[in-house]
Design brief:
Distance between the termini: 108 Å
Number of strands: 0
Shape: elongated
Helix content: 40-55%
Radius of gyration: 36 Å
Largest sheet: none
Order of helices and strands: HHH
Structural class: mainly alpha
Strand content: under 5%
Number of helices: 3
Length: 87
Amino acid sequence: MSQRPVPRTRIATLGTLGALGALAAIALAVNPGAPKTSSANTASARPKVKTIVVRRTVGVLPAAPAAAVAGGAAPRAAGGAAVAAAP
């Protein structure tokens, strides 16, 4: 009866899990006086949020005549309104 050797991956896995467990224990031991909050306390400590819906009507300019479209794009002012050509 010969025993099968333990694979290296199993040794590495067990070593990693042991190190993670030790790290978790150290992290928990560092701050033992952390405040414990219940869900009731957390709900009352949350800030109240107010949602406001802003409704604005955006005006749409009428479509340009076909002659103006064929000549190229009309120049626009800073606000987006079309600028009339000088006579």
